[in-house]
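Morning. Coffee machine broken again, so started the prediction first thing and wrote up yesterday's gels while waiting. Chain of 271 residues, entered below exactly as on the submission form.
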Amino acid sequence: MGGANQNVNLGEAADSFLAGLSASEKEINRQVIYRFVRWFGWKRPLGRLTAPEIANYAGRVSSSDTDHVKKLDLVRDFLVHAKKAGWTKGNLALHLKAKKGKGKAPSWSKQTSPEAIALTQHGYTQMKQELVALKSKRPQIVDDIHRAAADKDFRENAPLAAAREDLSHLEGRIKKLEEMLNSAVLIGDQPKITHKISVGSSIVLLDLTSGEEMHYTIVNPREVAPAKGKISSASPIGKAIIGRDQGDSIEIKVPAGRLNYKIKRVGSEQT
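Came back before lunch.
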């Protein structure tokens, strides 16, 4: 594999990365790196991974794995290696950020009721579809565990450890989805009299400097999809425009300075 070859697929890159580690490091890294590879596909060209995809992976792992910080660090090392090897144009490791929490995770047994979350109908449907898909994977993973467990040498049984970790990750995500769906508050699709922006609003912003128009849909942080123009209500833009009216001018502070926009149009989400 050439160092400047950005068509190297994830499976090849992972094997090359692991081959350069010591035996002890390889044992620690293998399961985590292979899970990352399976998430996107063994044959997926590493150079075609995007920053939003990496950020989404980090968010999913952070929300379903209590040991996510350590595991993301291992994946980050792999992505740094990929950049140095010339397999990616940019340093994708910069987008692999763990969600910060405050102290220890609360005990579910002590919680009275989950916090309600606002979801669009589209987001709710996507979560239900993901839940069905994940539950359909259970039998296969359980079968993998049974077949791997047939090998009595548990000390070197990497397939068994990987299958058990996959099942743990799967069950964590299923539990999280079920909790979110049970506490979801759907945003109505009926026309609104007001033009005030809220979660579910579809907006057109006019950049007062460049004259460029930008189309966004404001969604719950769990529904973010930058490639589809779905931005979080907790993002800088989301925070600046929630509660504002069509026709308002807004100013957003960013590290590079200030951005000035006019809210040109407000509507309901188009799904």
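Residues 1-99 form one domain. Going to sketch it on the whiteboard this afternoon.
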